[in-house]
C-alpha cells in the first residue's frame, strides 16, 4: 500500500513539473522547472516528505513506483540534454548536471521547510529570496562551463 501511495505522489509530482510553462530556450525551461519544483514542495509538503524522506519498500516488487519516480527526474534530464545538445558524448555530463541541480533543489527545499530554519535569525526578505537565489546560483554554475 505504501508503494502505491508513493507512486501516486511521484506521478503527481512529475505531472506538476511537466505542467510548467515550456520554453524553447533550455535555460528558461530549466528556470521554469525549478520554480515548479519548489512550488510543489511548498504546496504539498507531506507528499514531498513521503517521496524523499521515507524508506522505500523493496523496489523490485514495485516497478511502477520506480518508473514514476524516474519520470520526474527524466523531465530534468531532458532539459539538460537539450542544454548540452542531445548527443551521446554529452549525455553523461547532462546526467551529472541533472543530479547536481536535483540535489541542490532538494537540499534547499529541505532547509527551507526544516525545523531549524526558524532559528537561523534570517530576515523575511532573505527567506523569501532563498529559492530564487539557489536557482540563480545553479544557473551561474552551469554558465561558467559554457
Portion in helices? over 70%
Taking all Cα atoms into account, the compactness measure Rg is 16 Å
Global mean pLDDT: 90
The CATH topology assignment is: Tetracycline Repressor, domain 2
**Named CATH architecture:** Orthogonal Bundle
Task: Catalogue the unreliable spans.
Answer: none
Distance between the termini: 46 Å
The SSE string, one letter per element, is: HHHHHH
Biggest sheet details: none
Count of the separate structural domains:
1
Strand content: under 5%
At the fourth level of CATH, the homologous superfamily is Tetracycline Repressor, domain 2
CATH class: Mainly Alpha
Task: Tell me the total number of β-strands.
Answer: 0
Supply the number of helical segments.
Answer: 6
Spatial shape: globular
The assigned structural class equals mainly alpha
What does this structure look like?
The chain has 146 residues and is mainly α. The chain has six helices and no strands. The protein is globular and about 45 Å long. The chain starts with a helix and ends with a helix.
The gist of it:
This protein is mainly alpha-helical and 146 residues long. 76% of the residues lie in helices and 0% in strands. The protein is globular.
Strand and helix map with partners:
Elements: H1 2-18, H2 26-43, H3 45-53, H4 63-84, H5 88-112, H6 124-143
Helix pairs in contact: 1-2, 1-3, 1-4, 2-3, 2-4, 2-6, 4-5, 5-6
Key terms:
Tetracycline Repressor, domain 2
Amino acid at each position: 500500500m505504501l508503494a502505491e501511495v508513493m507512486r501516486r505522489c511521484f506521478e503527481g509530482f512529475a505531472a506538476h513539473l511537466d505542467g510548467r510553462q515550456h520554453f524553447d530556450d533550455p535555460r528558461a525551461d530549466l528556470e521554469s522547472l525549478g520554480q515548479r519544483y519548489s512550488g510543489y514542495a511548498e504546496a504539498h509538503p507531506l507528499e514531498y516528505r513521503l517521496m524523499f524522506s521515507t524508506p522505500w519498500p523493496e523496489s523490485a516488487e514495485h516497478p511502477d513506483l520506480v518508473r514514476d519516480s524516474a519520470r520526474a527526474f527524466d523531465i530534468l534530464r531532458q532539459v539538460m540534454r537539450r542544454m548540452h545538445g542531445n548527443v551521446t558524448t554529452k549525455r553523461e555530463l547532462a546526467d551529472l548536471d541533472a543530479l547536481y541541480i536535483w540535489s541542490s533543489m532538494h537540499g534547499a527545499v529541505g532547509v527551507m521547510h526544516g525545523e531549524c530554519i526558524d532559528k537561523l535569525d534570517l530576515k523575511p526578505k532573505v527567506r523569501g529570496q532563498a529559492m530564487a537565489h539557489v536557482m540563480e546560483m545553479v544557473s551561474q554554475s552551469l554558465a561558467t562551463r559554457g
